[in-house]
């Protein structure tokens, strides 16, 4: 096995787990990476108790002092970038060329952003003078013990997106990584501890949905932050709301790209490829429905086929590799099922890819969960591959006659995570993107999500936002106080 076994982490150190044991797998080879020891209910109880015990002291620590600890964690994350990136590559199957430049880097940026925000007065409230002798002041107070439920596609990044504002605001956290990609969690906990985070402020439990369900429904948990598929998110949100817990939900998408008639074809193709093949298509915001004007279809497809040669599957540590396997056997079978359905049932035209594995894979990778990047064209809105989230490297081309039609069809989905527009006329691009029903939108680019940018889904794609100035608001509650200094009490119960 490539890595040490994982156990629960609380009170600032690794502790013995008492649940079942499962294994995490290298998706590129199908080989075992490590034994993961699940938490049982008692383990979860103890981790939550550790977080509860740490909360009074941590929440009363001045924001500037909390900021210094988080900035030390940022420094450690950046020093160990390549080490953590290699671990993420092993666990997720993403090329090192990606994990070393995106996953840790963007997560550390978010920690730095929120550390700076709270140090610079980001938790300050308001002061309002009602009249000469009466004032109202507000305070932003932490919620308490929070649960973070991670996703398997960006493990360390999502763990940092959740823990950074949570801890900066003065809360404590019990974090459960996805059982598919769990290796990062202990590394992050140890970095936080080394940076000076007091014992119990950040804790880790491992396990599948039963562990997550027990954690999120626990009466001591004040908030649940979840990233994952829509169906699971609804269950988590329903349970949390029923117990009056705060929630942030970042769920799935079926995002549209509208290529405007005046768009530069090469730029639009580059954007569409990034929106569908980066991270092997395992990105919530994937722009899987690409709407192209009918007269542009042939030229768009030709340019797309020219550029498919630049997708390079292979040894994940090779700097030239930019395309990896799917994350697990179960997910591989799901994505292959969608590709098969697109060919055999939807009868979409297969322009590239299909059911075979990428050509030229080294012998030691042939047992991994590899799939060819795939392009369907001549698609219609009623096809299953158009309506349902595939979460794999499958790009679907649809044509449209006019922009009004394209916008209407782009919005014809229950999901609303992301959307984008490509075109030279920026005035028109702004008009079109303003009509798209999605919480994250781009013009002439795709996928960038800096720490300063608040992101979150509309419709069935989520509740609340992460990152940006609004991101901190998801981790605090408001207290308003009215102070009357007049030395008299206004009362109706006075002598007539």
UniProtKB/TrEMBL annotation:
Q: Which family does it belong to?
A: Belongs to the aldehyde dehydrogenase family.
Domain Aldehyde dehydrogenase, first and last residues per copy: 18-480
Species the sequence originates in: Endocarpon pusillum (strain Z07020 / HMAS-L-300199) (Lichen-forming fungus)
Q: Which GO molecular-function terms appear in the entry?
A: aldehyde dehydrogenase (NAD+) activity; metal ion binding
Q: Where are the active-site residues found? A: 250
Presence of keyword Cell division: no
Q: What class of enzyme is it?
A: oxidoreductase
Database matches in PANTHER family? ALDEHYDE DEHYDROGENASE-RELATED
Q: Which reaction does it catalyse?
A: an aldehyde + NAD(+) + H2O = a carboxylate + NADH + 2 H(+)
Q: Any idea what this protein is called? A: aldehyde dehydrogenase (NAD(+))
**From what superkingdom does this record's organism come?**
Eukaryota
Record keywords, A-Z: Metal-binding, NAD, Oxidoreductase
Give yes or no: UniProt keyword Metal-binding. yes
The lineage is:
Eukaryota, Fungi, Dikarya, Ascomycota, Pezizomycotina
Q: What's a Pfam family in this record?
A: Aldedh
Instruction: Name the Enzyme Commission number(s) assigned to this protein.
Output: 1.2.1.3
Classification via Gene3D superfamilies:
Aldehyde Dehydrogenase, Chain A, domain 1, Aldehyde Dehydrogenase, Chain A, domain 2
